[in-house]
Amino acid sequence: MPMNRDDDSVMIDATRLFATGDPGAPFAARNATSALYDRYQDIISSKEVTWEMTYRLLSRLGAGGQGIVFLADRSGAFDVSFPLALKFYRPDGYPDIQTYRREMSRMARVNMETARIQQDHLIDVYNVVEYRGILVLVSEWVDGYDLRQLTTPKLLKQIKRAVEPERWSYINDVIITDAGFQSRLMPGVAIAIIRECLAGLAALHRQGIIHADLKPANVMVKQTGNCKIIDLGSAFLDDEYPLRPTWTPRYAAVEVLEGARHTPLSDLASLGYVLLELLTGKYPFAGVADGAELIAVKRDIWRRIPDLLPKDVARNNTLVQMLSKMIAPDPADRFASLEEADLSQSGASEIERQLVKVNMTTEVENEMRILMQEFSQVSTTDEEIRRLRTG
């Protein structure tokens, strides 16, 4: 619609008002606003911008061989702040500064490649910073519990004391139940979590990145009920292998334990061991020494999958076949890719469809969201939360 003269006048007045301020204001105020607008124009016309950033370290989230992770507040304008995670990579263990810097440079590239993926089930990486010679990874703080924490019996006992008997019965029947050594997840919940992990890992692999350390402690369940794969400390681009091994032998594929490099299919095997643990509530390699004994046990477990699973779970032949094609000792016997593990006739999506037919599935995202709220409510003190979330 063509504008009349009055409309033109309104537009001109609005432009002048934005550039110079309120025409009725004192001259000095209008002049200051005009100067601010000039700075705005300078900024948006420039090729780069620079400002300082301050992070306040609040608490330790975890520590390991590679460094320490802190929950931090990033200070912003107008007295706002934003919680995130800072990982400081330790330099000891490297023979010299040059080697440390070379390895940190490689890890910085891995993390920035991950940041480009923007997949919902991968941790969001914001930046890599070199602070006084130390690599610092700036990433999202995932508010929730990792799968290792989620399956600790202590957490489930707290829930039992806090909820009504009817709710407790529902939790045990549909979501999670005690299995003795630790808690086990119901098949529908476990498969939903694994599907999100498969999606995240597949996105990494399409970008040429191997995670190389999939284990329960590296999968977080958020307060929203969704999952995130975290900790890329062992990850590498497929043409840049790490200078030293940092992965966890208990969840490594057989070929990796025998000296081969990690591949997408070794990530698949690691996720298969995680699924086996979630379904059985048992740590499959307890008391087993690393090395030849661990390799032998992993070859034996592959042949005994139905015997390890709860009887109601073992009756699902597709689920047994899926596990078999995830943790097979020979990579040639596994699924060809993470996508196949999810979408094939013996994959996770097919199992989910079968569970729907027999009424053994649920709205997992919503169920886990409610469960996360209940966990937070029973962990009433900061000290209790800290103990649960740091193991």
From TrEMBL:
GO cellular component, one term: cytoplasm
Gene3D superfamilies: Phosphorylase Kinase, domain 1, Transferase(Phosphotransferase) domain 1
Signal peptide: none
Molecular function GO terms recorded: ATP binding; protein serine/threonine kinase activity
Domain Protein kinase: 55-356
Pfam family name, one: Pkinase
Name used for this protein in its record: Protein kinase domain-containing protein
Provenance organism: Planctomicrobium piriforme
UniProt lineage: Bacteria, Pseudomonadati, Planctomycetota, Planctomycetia, Planctomycetales
